[in-house]
UniProtKB/TrEMBL annotation:
<feature type="site" description="Important for catalytic activity">
    <location>
        <position position="142"/>
    </location>
</feature>
<dbReference type="GO" id="GO:0006631">
    <property type="term" value="P:fatty acid metabolic process"/>
</dbReference>
<keyword id="KW-0560">Oxidoreductase</keyword>
<feature type="binding site">
    <location>
        <position position="145"/>
    </location>
    <ligand>
        <name>NAD(+)</name>
    </ligand>
</feature>
<feature type="binding site">
    <location>
        <position position="94"/>
    </location>
    <ligand>
        <name>NAD(+)</name>
    </ligand>
</feature>
<dbReference type="InterPro" id="IPR006180">
    <property type="entry name" value="3-OHacyl-CoA_DH_CS"/>
</dbReference>
<feature type="binding site">
    <location>
        <position position="35"/>
    </location>
    <ligand>
        <name>NAD(+)</name>
    </ligand>
</feature>
<dbReference type="InterPro" id="IPR013328">
    <property type="entry name" value="6PGD_dom2"/>
</dbReference>
<feature type="binding site">
    <location>
        <begin position="12"/>
        <end position="17"/>
    </location>
    <ligand>
        <name>NAD(+)</name>
    </ligand>
</feature>
<feature type="binding site">
    <location>
        <position position="276"/>
    </location>
    <ligand>
        <name>NAD(+)</name>
    </ligand>
</feature>
<keyword id="KW-0520">NAD</keyword>
<dbReference type="InterPro" id="IPR006176">
    <property type="entry name" value="3-OHacyl-CoA_DH_NAD-bd"/>
</dbReference>
<comment type="similarity">
    <text>Belongs to the 3-hydroxyacyl-CoA dehydrogenase family.</text>
</comment>
<dbReference type="InterPro" id="IPR006108">
    <property type="entry name" value="3HC_DH_C"/>
</dbReference>
<dbReference type="Pfam" id="PF00725">
    <property type="entry name" value="3HCDH"/>
</dbReference>
<feature type="domain" description="3-hydroxyacyl-CoA dehydrogenase NAD binding">
    <location>
        <begin position="7"/>
        <end position="185"/>
    </location>
</feature>
<dbReference type="InterPro" id="IPR036291">
    <property type="entry name" value="NAD(P)-bd_dom_sf"/>
</dbReference>
Length: 293
């Protein structure tokens, strides 16, 4: 029987994982949200609740839809808890060895016909797929942050991804009310191949003293009509994720133009990862974000 996606598993209950679970539940899928840390599952579910409440307040979601969607989401703390899923989307930390280990544990628990997807920002889909028992049923489904508000999803086929998986993924993304762009499987795909070097350049601009945090963000918001300044956006994405993407670009394309800015490395080494740790290019611990340089 052809596969019909009804139950979706999401691994990693961080900012992207909770957003993916959020939009899947609103679209009528049953959702199992997993994280290695039970506290993360709890805080992921609380974030979804709060974000759906914002949508109700704005009138984009009804209170009834919110209640029904929340009832469709369960938190699970073991990979075995995802055994019944038809599609599992991995959205854990942007580190290849972390993702490989997850897929290896997951394949042992899942039905052979279930689909696997990664929300990776940059890592080779072909390489991740090759580490599983089903490279033909593996695809990149790359959501944008914040997931409930952003329209685009990149679909990335690995070399072995079959047509059935691609077609099912297109239908899935369309049912989420998202628009997809198909990207070839090269480092960081389309959006991040273009966006992250711009962010990295903004950090070099700060590092070389061309402008302050405030001046750089103001310049790009008011001078190029970007909704967020590049340093604000870097904090929003997470500086660890930004650095991981630049490293994949630098290693994968072997071009010095992708060299991560040493200041980005320093912030990550300090554990200043942006909004998620309350400090990055801005300090978020007070009432208003304050530039840290
Ligand atoms: C790294 C990767 O791999 C790929 C990536 O994702 S790269 C990052 C891509 N994303 C971007 O570039 C985002 C750039 N920023 C933006 O587009 C905008 O700033 C934004 C859409 C995030 C917010 O837009 P804004 O006009 O400032 O709106 P803002 O007032 O903050 O929020 C709009 C509404 O959505 C709500 N909202 C914000 N986040 C939300 C969420 N996660 N879920 C639900 N609602 C949310 C807000 O509460 C707000 O509601 P009200 O209007 O009732 O206050
Ligand atoms: N941030 C962004 O703007 C975007 C990110 N992405 C991609 O999405 C993925 C997740 O990013 P994001 O949500 O921002 O990151 P976060 O740091 O917010 O969340 C990652 C989550 O994964 C958890 N995790 C780590 N290891 C495991 C594991 N073995 N099993 C289950 N969960 C695990 C982490 O737990 P703990 O903290 O306890 O380790 C954390 O809760 C990355 O691949 C990233 O590149 C894609 C699009 C946009």
């Amino acid at each position: 029987m052809p596969l019909e996606i009804k139950k979706v598993g999401v691994i990693g209950a961080g900012q992207m994982g909770n957003g993916i679970a959020h939009v899947c539940a609103l679209a009528g899928y049953d959702v199992m949200l997993n994280d290695a840390d039970p506290d993360r599952v709890r805080s992921g579910l609380a974030t979804i609740n709060g974000n759906m409440a914002k949508q109700v307040a704005k009138g984009t979601v009804t209170e009834e839809d919110r209640q029904q969607a929340l009832a469709r989401i369960s938190g699970v703390t073991t990979i075995d808890g995802l055994a019944e899923c038809d599609l599992v989307i991995e959205s854990a930390t942007e580190r290849e060895e972390v993702k490989r280990k997850i897929f290896s544990d997951l394949c042992a628990a899942l039905r052979p016909d279930a689909l696997l997807a990664s929300n990776t920002s940059s890592i080779s889909i072909t390489r991740l797929a090759a580490s599983t028992d089903r490279p033909e049923r593996f695809i990149g489904i790359h959501f944008m942050n914040p997931v409930p508000l952003m329209e685009l999803v990149e679909l990335v086929r690995g070399i072995a991804t079959d047509d059935d998986t691609f077609e099912l993924s297109k239908k899935f993304v369309t049912r989420l009310n998202k628009t997809y762009a198909v990207a070839e499987d090269f480092p960081a795909f389309i959006v991040n191949r273009i966006l992250l070097p711009m962010i990295n350049e903004a950090i070099y601009t700060l590092y070389e003293g061309v402008g302050s945090v405030d001046a750089i963000d103001r310049a790009m918001k008011l001078g190029a009509n970007h909704p967020m300044g590049p340093l604000q956006l870097a904090d929003f994405i997470g500086l660890d994720t930004c650095l991981a993407i630049m490293q994949v670009l630098h290693e994968g394309l072997a071009d010095s133009k992708y060299r991560p800015c040493p200041l980005l490395v320093k912030y990550v080494e300090a554990g200043w990862l942006g909004r998620k740790t309350q400090r990055g290019f801005y300090d978020y611990r007070g009432e208003k974000p304050v530039p840290t340089r």
